[in-house]
Amino acid sequence: MSKLLRIAALQYCAGADASATLTQIEPMIVRAAEAGAYLVALPEAASFLAPSQKRLADLAENESDSPSLYHFSQMARQRGIWLLIGSLLIRRSEDEKLVNRSYLVTPDGMIGSHYDKIHMFDANVGDGRQYAESKNFLAGGKMVVADCGAALIGLSICYDVRFPGLYRDMARAGAAILSIPSAFTYNSGQAHWHVLLRARAIENGCFVIAPAQCGTHADGRRTFGHALIINPWGEIMVEAETNDDVADPGANDDVIFADIDLDDVQQARSAIPSLSNATPYTG
Prior knowledge:
The protein is of the alpha/beta class. 28% of the residues lie in helices and 28% in strands.
């Protein structure tokens, strides 16, 4: 018996503060829910991308009373959907340290699971900017495979995609879907986005859902877009419409849908059983 599930991923250009972004994307979430999506996924930095490090410190909300987290939770409850908040740039409750944290919200508006980005994006991709995420955020240290009712989903964020061992461990822990919400830089996205995401699907026999930021943000960075949903055979099921010649905020906003059959996970793993065939070795 097949196990069909409609999932949706959003692509948009987050504004410089949460209020502007939430106004922009609320109709997109409503559209996804009204189209029958069981799971709706938002990109990394779902609520804002600050124009500067100083503004990031000012705008980061406290988890204990975050208006953005409350707003998203209410939307999940009102629409009866599982909502993956790709990440919020937030101060954790226990010590107010900044983390890049992904949330899986249940259809009754509760926080089902959360994941802190493990791999900090400290890189120079040739776009005239130096990225040093570790200067602002405390890195996570725990893999998270969460239950979204119909399936187990492995939670990750953006730069994590370059560390395949994380996803292999998620698959071994039972994940059928890998979430990779991102704010991928335009330069690295052109070179690596599609191939990295397809590889993670193929290696692990998993669906991949990759909502994405797209456009030029308040701090001048440009994100790549091309949000994707990929099947366990590594085939792109659907890709957001993205005009690479247009970087204007909002020009490439999109909601993509796929009806996935969870039985495809076992079929792919049976056809090429790399998870069970892996053999320990020494250097």
